[in-house]
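Q: What structure does this chain adopt?
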Amino acid sequence: MVLTDPCIQPRSLPPDDIPYKAPAPAPAAKSSLKRKKRAATAEQPASGQLKKKKKTKKTKKGNVTPV
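A:
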């Protein structure tokens, strides 16, 4: 019985002396930050109600902002 050949050996497993490390739990701060952002944006008017900025037009006399 020859088990030293790497082709015959089963898939290698990590050694037993390494302690199992559980994945770190996701930080809860991110979800609360998202909630705060949503609450802040909810207080603002909808995008359809926002006033659009009027562009300044260049003329021979200088820049004129429409009223």
